[in-house]
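re: the backbone from monday

yeah here it is again, tokenized this time
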């Protein structure tokens, strides 16, 4: 059945997580030769946001996720950290925690306003050694750089996508992964948006056609690559896979897609957790397979509460739940399209655009330094 134009999701003005008023995003990259990793921080407005999480991968690396259980004490959080570096990279959250403490942001635990304990949930992905240096991974300084980049950005700023932040060393199946973001503006005026870091053990590409899985069901027929282009891409990926097998580079089996879904709706903690769970449907549309033992697929929710739900909220909440899945699926597509391929000591990972054409059809260095403001 063909959808009517009025039924299609309408993106916000930036088509990004920052379409949710007050949400800011910052990226930082691990510096140095052989480094291909980084951290992304999603910074909530002053006063924090209602937060939740749904972890479905069999090999997650997380921090402070138990605090987000609706049965537990913490009501709001000030930041969420998405990071490379596997479990080592979770140290990036320490830098964010210190930055928040310096500003008196966190759970008040004493009579002095400075006596706070910031609760900083975090999730990591596996990118160890992809730039060539095994120990080049995010730490507390990377987390501080990313949250400072977020804080320095203007409200409603564009969010850099592709091979940035936590997506610097990400891989999506056989191609380069990265950061992508998308938003949906509902007729009610509520905004729902997602930011994904795509580092999947599964594939984002339909092997029959070369179409990105997340493009199916987007409301318009996906643009199918020419058969000759698709065949050339398949040959290229086969060559890379054979070379990787000869050199015993098998790290692509240890992967994760991590994401934040944000909304300006006034959700309870239980409703926010439901949104985190249904957003995984968007992940399942865009990556196949998902939620494997070697994945750490994790989705966080942030709800800023600026738009109240109606007295009978079921229909409105259903729209928000559906929009979260739509936004996350599109964010994954945008991550794949924005990524820049790498060819270095840690392996060869071409980008989707390099294989199939597009504005990002170029190859980048396997190492680098510096921070990216978001």
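seq for it, each position gets an aa:
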């Amino acid at each position: 059945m063909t959808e009517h134009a009025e039924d299609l999701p309408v993106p916000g003005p930036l088509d990004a997580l920052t379409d949710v008023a007050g949400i800011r995003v910052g990226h930082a990259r691990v510096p140095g030769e052989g480094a291909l990793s980084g951290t992304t921080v999603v910074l909530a407005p002053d006063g924090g946001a209602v937060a939740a999480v749904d972890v479905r991968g069999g090999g997650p690396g997380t921090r402070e996720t138990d605090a987000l259980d609706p049965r537990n004490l913490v009501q709001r959080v000030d930041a969420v950290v998405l990071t490379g570096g596997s479990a080592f990279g979770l140290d990036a959250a320490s830098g964010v925690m210190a930055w928040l403490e310096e500003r008196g942001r966190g759970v008040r635990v004493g009579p002095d306003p400075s006596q706070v304990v910031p609760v900083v949930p975090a999730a990591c992905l596996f990118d160890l050694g992809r730039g060539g240096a095994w120990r080049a991974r995010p730490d507390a300084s990377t987390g501080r750089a990313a949250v400072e980049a977020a804080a320095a950005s203007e409200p409603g700023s564009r969010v850099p996508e592709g091979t940035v932040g936590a997506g610097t060393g990400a891989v999506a199946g056989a191609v380069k992964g990265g950061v992508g973001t998308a938003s949906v503006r509902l007729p009610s005026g509520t905004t729902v948006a997602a930011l994904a870091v795509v580092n999947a053990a599964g594939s984002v590409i339909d092997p029959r056609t070369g179409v990105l899985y997340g493009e199916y069901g987007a409301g318009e027929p996906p643009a199918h690559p020419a058969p000759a282009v698709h065949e050339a891409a398949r040959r290229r990926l086969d060559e890379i896979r054979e070379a990787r097998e000869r050199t015993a580079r098998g790290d692509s089996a240890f992967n994760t897609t991590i994401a934040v879904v944000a909304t300006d709706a006034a959700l309870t903690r239980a409703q926010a957790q439901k949104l985190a769970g249904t957003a995984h449907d968007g992940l399942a549309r865009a990556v196949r397979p998902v939620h494997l033992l070697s994945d750490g697929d994790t989705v966080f929710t942030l709800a800023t509460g600026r738009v109240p739900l109606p007295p009978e909220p079921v229909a409105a909440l259903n729209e928000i739940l559906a929009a979260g899945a739509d936004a996350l699926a599109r964010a994954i597509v945008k991550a794949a399209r924005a990524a820049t391929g790498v060819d270095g000591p840690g392996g060869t990972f071409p980008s989707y655009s390099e294989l199939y054409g597009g504005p990002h059809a170029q190859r980048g260095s396997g190492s680098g330094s510096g921070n990216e403001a978001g």
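The helical segments are 92-102, 140-152, 227-246, 269-286, 314-338, 352-356. The two ends are 39 Å apart (CA to CA).
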